[in-house]
Amino acid sequence: MSSSSSQTKAPNEEPTSSSNKPNADETARFECNICLDAAKDAVVSLCGHLFCWPCLSQWLDTRPNNQVCPVCKSAIDGSKVVPIYGRGGDSADPRSKIPPRPKGTRSEPPPQSFGGFNWGDGLNGPNVHFSFGIGIFPLSFVASFFGNGNANNAENGQNGAGAQQQGGSSRADGTAPGSRMAGEEEYLANIFKYVGIFLLVWLLFV
Amino acid sequence: MSNIALNRLQRECKEVVTNSEISETGIMIEILNENLTEIKGHIRGPPDTPYAGGMFDLDIKIPEQYPFSPPNVKFCTKIWHPNVSSQTGVICLDILKDQWAASLTLRTVLLSIQALMCTPEPKDPQDAVVAKQYMDKPAVFKATAEFWTVKFAKGHLDVNKEYQTRVDKLKDMGVREEEAISVLSCNNWDINRATVYIFS
To answer: Which residues of chain A have pLDDT under 70?
Structure first.
């Protein structure tokens, strides 16, 4: 496929065809690999291939024990495709029989470096970014143990002031309650809690 | 047939018809009925193979679940090839069976079959007799495949005189030409064994 498109594209790459003139090749890049039509409810697999969600879902349904990408045959998972949201779409009614298109996953940006204080960089205007990280080894667990309850309070208190706080232990706000990620976080939080209690007891009695 | 299949087939046919590669690759299709369930494919025999110069016709049947299941493709021109039945024209090709992928099109299928004609896979044969000849007697295989190309695929090469006289001998005994060629080919052109096979 790539060889043929590169062959057919070659004559078009002359200066006459500029970006303001969409040609056939331009639109062909966004065609679903199954129905060969412009992709509706577009999703892209982790191997980078574009499909309509109804088409891909039907393909995966037809061979439940051989879940591979129809283009490159790499293993794919129907729940791990990335939906593509363009502008102005998405008004279509959710089709009754087809399972809903999986949601995009959001993750928080990585926390800033230890002890970094950023006083309003040019982009964010007067906003103050205040972040604190994880401290010395045993104490960090203690901090995270107590942090859970306090972080929420602190956040509530500071929201009014327009300041944004990124605590080392505060939960990522993007995870939806009940999702798998939230469950994992809950589990991790519990582990840290018990380790914290253990270390407190150890510090007090040894 | 679902709407998606019909739309897709129309695009695929257009792709094969309008693609500029056609003159180079030598694949063509012909639409037989309006709802595009039966299509005829043509493949020009690749150069530097025993099939060079021939034009091979294929029957393509589009199933109800297309493109989620593969099209049914078989040769209707007789061909002497380890992965094609010399009797029925059935093709042994993984992408027409379990390795089918919905992104494959009529064009890629025909190109794959053309590639199979260039490089036979005798270890996974459809016709065991042909495959055995391909492995044991490559020279006889080549001559036989060329003879079949001339006889059945309108090849331009000169017909192998020696083989033709043997076919004519069997024809004089009242055997149809097609059967005579087939039986002789299967018996490595040994006319005595072929006669025994036919009349026993």
So the answer is: 1-28, 88-98, 112-179
Q: Which residue in the set B11, B20, B103 is minimally distant from A33, CB to CB? A: B103
pTM of the model: 0.65
CB-based contact B149:B158 (threshold 8 Å): no
Contacts of B25 in chain A (CB under 8 A): none
* Chain A nearest C-alpha distance from B108 (Å): 9
Q: Is A98 on the interface with B (CB under 8 A)?
A: no
Count helices and strands in chain A by DSSP H and E runs: 5, 6
- The verdict on a CB contact (< 8 Å) between B103 and A34 is yes
Domains and CATH numbers, chain B: 3-118 (3.10.110.10), 128-199 (no CATH)
Going from N- to C-terminal start, the domains of chain A cover 133-205
CA-nearest residue to A3 within chain B is B21
- The number of beta carbons lying within 10 Å of the beta carbon of residue A198 is 11
**How many angstroms away from the CA of B139 is the closest CA of chain A?**
35
The 10s digit of each residue's pLDDT in A15-30 is: 433 444 445 555 567 8
**Looking at A150-164, A181-195, B46-60, B148-162, which range is the least confident one?**
A150-164
Residues in CB range of A88: below 8 A, 6 or more apart: none
User: Which of the residues B2, B4, B15, B24 would you substitute to probe the A interface, choosing the one with the greatest number of A C-beta atoms within 10 Å?
Assistant: B4
Among candidates A4, A66, A71 on the partner chain, residue whose Cβ is nearest the Cβ of B21: A4
CA distances from B113 to A16, A31, B41, B134, B139 (A): 38, 25, 11, 18, 23
Angle at B42 between CA B38 and CA B47, to 5 degrees: 160
Residue linked to tokens 């695009």: B11
Taking CA–CA distances from A59, the nearest residue in chain B reads B68
- B7 vs A37, A58, A69: nearest CB: A37
Residue A104 is given by DSSP the state P
Q: Are A83 and A53 in contact (CB under 8 A)?
A: yes
- Each residue's pLDDT tens digit, A37-53: 888 888 899 999 999 98
